[in-house]
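User: Could you check the structure of this?
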Amino acid sequence: MSVPDDQSKRRDEAIPPHRTPPRLSRAVGSPGADVARRSVILITGALTITLFASLAPGCRRDDPKRVTAPVAATAAMSHASSDCRSCHEDIYKTWADSHHAHAHRVVNPVADADAFTPKKFPLHGVNYELALENGRPALTELRPDRPPQRFTADYVLGYTPLRQYVVPVGNGRYQLTELAYDPAKNDWFNVFGDERRQPGEWGQWLGRGMNWNSMCAHCHLTEFRKNYNPATDAYASTWTEHGVGCVQCHGNLAPNHSDPNRKPIVRSSGAQPTEPKPPAVLAAVRQRAQETCAPCHARNELLTGDVRPEVAYNDHYRLTLPTDAAVFYPDGQVRDEDFNYTSLMTSRMGGKAGITCLDCHEPHSGRTRLPASNNALCLQCHGAPGRQNAVIIDPLAHSHHKADSTGNQCVTCHMPMTTYMQRDPRHDHGFLKPDPLLTRELGIPNACNRCHTDQTVDWSITHTEQWYGEKMNSRQRARARAVAAAQTGAAGATERLLEFIASEDIPAWKATLLLLTRAHAANPAVIAAARAATTDADPMVRSAAAQVLATSPGGAPALRPLLKDPFRLVRLDAEWALSPELPENSPERKELEAYLTVAADQPTGRLRIAQDLFNRGRTADAEAPLRKATEWDPNSPGIHETLGLVLDALGRSGEAAASLWRSAQLNPTEAQPAMNAALAFAAAGKLPDAELALREAVRRDPRLDRAWYNLGLLLAQTNRPAEAITALQQAEQIAPRVPDYPYARATILWQRGEREAAEAAARRVLEIDPSHANARQLLRSPR
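Assistant: Sure, the predicted C-alpha cells are below.
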C-alpha cells in the first residue's frame, strides 16, 4: 500500500511548468528491490512497502524454565514413548537408536565427558576453555577486547555427525552454541566455518538467529510450545519429551490406549482381509503421512507455531520455494541450508508421481528401506517391472560407469551431496539430471564435476552430449534458464515465465514461476495468469497467485474469494493483501493477527507487524516495532530501509535519510537503496548528501536511468547546468522512451537561453508522448 496521497505528491510531484526545472523525483517506471537476508522490501513508485512473506528458516531455538527434565505440557499428559514399548517392542527398539530419539537430551556427565575433557584452544580468533563442573558442561569464551563469558549447558542438540550445546541466558531464553563437537573425530569446530560472526549480529550465536526457543526446539522436542511473551520479551516454553517421540508423529491417542487393563484387539487368523482402499484414498493417506515428516525436513515459515501431526502442511507452514538465487539454484538444486521437502516437491517424483518419504525411508529408524549403494532402493521403482509408472532403467547402460563404481550409483548423479554446518553431508532430493551446460551458462553445479574434479566443465559437456544427446535439451534445462532470466531481470523473462506457467504440471514449480512474476505484477498477462491460478487445485499455487495479485492494480476483487480458502496459507496471503479492509474482530482479522504474533520474537516478525500497521494507515504506530527490529538485527538493510520509508511518510525526512543511507551502506552492491537515500536527503534539504548518494547509486549501477535523471535535476538546482545536461543525456541514452528526461533537458536549455536546443529537446518529448502538455507549452512560448 502506498503512503497517503499528499506525501506521495510531495516527493514525486507532477512535472512542473517548464520555467521551473523538475525537482528530484522517485520514478514510477523504475522499481527497485532490496532482498535482505530475512526480509523482502519492494519499492515501486512513491514509497510503497510490501512484504512477500518468505522467511529464511532454519533450525530454531530457547528454554523452558531452567529445568533438567522434561516440562509437562499444559494440556493433558501425553503418552511418553516408553509407554508404547510394551506393545510395540520392535518398533521401539528401532526408534530408540534413531536420530529422532537422540535429537535432544539433557546433559550427562558420562555421555559428555569425551567432549568436555578440560582443555583450552583457539578457534577463528576466539579462545575457549572447556570443563565439566558439577557434572555439567561449562564453556568459557574469551574474545579480544571483551571480558570472558562463561556458560553452562543444560541440553544437547543433535547426535551424529555433530552435537551442539544449549545454554541458558535468562528470561527463559536458551541459545545454541556455534562451537560444536564432532564425536567421530573427537574434535571441536565452528559451525559457521571461517565466517566469524561477531557479537551483536543477528546470526551470531548469542543473537536471535541462534535462539533455541524460536529456531530449533520445535523440531528437536516432543510437543514443544514456545510460549513467548512479547510484552516482556521472555519465554515460558514447555514440552513433554526430549527428542522426537512417538506422540510427535502419531499424535495423542485415546486416553486408555496404553492402559494395561484395556481389552486387547484380537485378530482371528481366519478373518477376511479388508477391502483395498481406492487409489485416491491411498494417495491422500500417503500425502498426510508425508506431511508429518515435512515440517521438520523443510525450509519453511511457521504460520501457527503449532508443530503437531494430523494437520495439513499448508495450514501450518509456508514452504520456501526456489525463487531466490541465494537459496536455491535456478534448476532447483539446494544451495543454502534447504533440507529436503522443497526439493522433493519440485521433483517429478515427488511433485508429480506422488513418491513420498516413506517410499524410500523406514519412518522409525530413518534409514532407507533398501540399500542405495547397489541401486536396490531406486530399482524398486525403476527396475523391471517398474512401479509408479517409473521408467525402466539399466544402471550400467544408463550411467556409462563401471559396475560397483561410485559413478554407477543412482544417488551419486541424481542426489548429489552438499555439506552443511561443516560436518553434515546431505543428499539433494530433487532427482535432477546433471547438466554441465548449465554450469557453464549459469554457474549451477553438476554431479559430473563434483566427482571428476580434475576435469573441466567442457569435458563433462562433451560426455553428456555423447551419451544422452537430445535428452539433455529437457524442460529442466529450459525452465532453469527461464528462472535465471527472471532473477536477473533479463529482457523477455516475464514472457518466458508465462509460457512455462501455462504448461507446468508440478505445483511447486508453477507456484515458483508465478512468484517470479511479481516484479511485473502490473503486466496484464501476469494479472490474467494470477487470476486463473486462484482456482488451481494446489494451495501453493493459489498462495502464489494471491501474492502476485496483492501488488497488482485492481487485484482486490480476485483476492476476496480467497479469504474463504480451505487452507490457512492461502487465506493469510489474501488477508495480508486486504488487511486495510478487514473488519476488527472478524475471523479474518483474528487469523491474521494470530499469524503476526508467531514470529514476534524475531526481527522479521516485528517487521511484518510494522508493515501491516503501515498498510492499515497507522503509520506512527509502525515505528516502534521497526525500531525493535533494527535493535535485534542492526545489520539488515531491508529493515533499515523500511524504517526509513516509514519515517519519510511521517514527514521526518532527516531521520528517514539516515535510515535509508544506513540501508545503502549495508547493501553495498545495490544501487536502488542509495537512490532512495538521496531522495530523502534532498527532501531534508541536504543536497550535498543527496548528490553523494546519487553518485554512489550510478557508480553501483551505471544503467540506473532514474538515478542519472535525479542527479541531473540536483545539478540543475545547484547551478551546474552543463553537468546537469550531461547526466540527463546519460538517462536518455539508457531509457530513450521516457519523456521526463528530454523534457528536463529542455527546461535547463531554455533557462540557459539555448532556445533552439530546448525546442529540439521538447520536440523529442512529443515524439515519445504526443500528449505532453508542458512540452507543447514550451514550444508555444515566445523566444
